[in-house]
Amino acid sequence: MKQSNRALFVLTIVAGFLLTSCTEAPYYEKVVSFEGNKWSVNEKPTFEVEIDDTSALYDFVLTLRTTTEYKYNNLWIFWNTKTPNGENVREPFELKITAPDGSWLGKNSGTIVENQIHFRQRKIAPKGTYTFVLEQGITEEFIDNVLDVDLKVEKVK
Questions:
Q1: Nearest to 79 by CA among 94, 97, 98, 58
Q2: What is the mean pLDDT of residues 10-29?
Q3: Predicted confidence (pLDDT) per residue in 31-40, tens digit
Q4: How confident is the model at residue 139 (pLDDT cuts 50, 70, 90)?
Q5: Number of folded domains that form the chain
Q6: Which of 10, 63, 138, 144 is the most exposed place for a label (fewest CB within 10 A)?
Q7: CATH code of the domain covering residue 33
């Protein structure tokens, strides 16, 4: 490698590191991967989020990653919430994966498709630990070609 190319390569790496290290980390993030890329009906990803500032607004982003071999056009998810005071809420959500023509709706990178559900600017009270449990809502024993699910919580500035 020529000296000028080597210097450009090193500068590019350093610039990339500086740009990525300047982004603020989410308030909470956890990824749950599915063994063998199969989401079993019995597997219920659980996320425990400690909310310490009830005056803040929070954005919740649920990301589901599938392969391009995923055979359905959607996925029903049950979002179960347990609040610090013991209240339980179960909500169904449909995550659209493909358009009617079969094209991917999410971000497609090679053989991976990433779809998201956004819950923006949520005020959370009371203070304490919230437990979120996801259930897949398909009537089969497992869903093939599901890589992982990620929950990210960010404080709104």
A1: 94
A2: 61
A3: 999 999 999 9
A4: confident
A5: 1
A6: 10
A7: 2.60.120
Structure tokens at 26: 């989410």
Q: Tokens 């929070």: give the residue.
A: 58
Average pLDDT for 28-32? 98
Q: Which of 76, 84, 71, 53 is nearest to 134 (CA)?
A: 76
Token pair for residue 49? 């989020």
**Half-sphere exposure at residue 16, Cβ-oriented, CA atoms within 13 angstroms:** 6
**Residue 136, domain extent:** 27-155
Radius of gyration for the alpha carbons in the chain, expressed in angstroms and rounded: 19
8 A C-beta contact, residue 32 and residue 148: yes
Distance CA 50, CA 58 (A): 12
99 located within any domain: yes
Q: What is the pTM of this model?
A: 0.82
Q: Is residue 75 part of a domain?
A: yes
Whether 1 is in a domain gets the answer no
Location of structure tokens 């071999």: 69
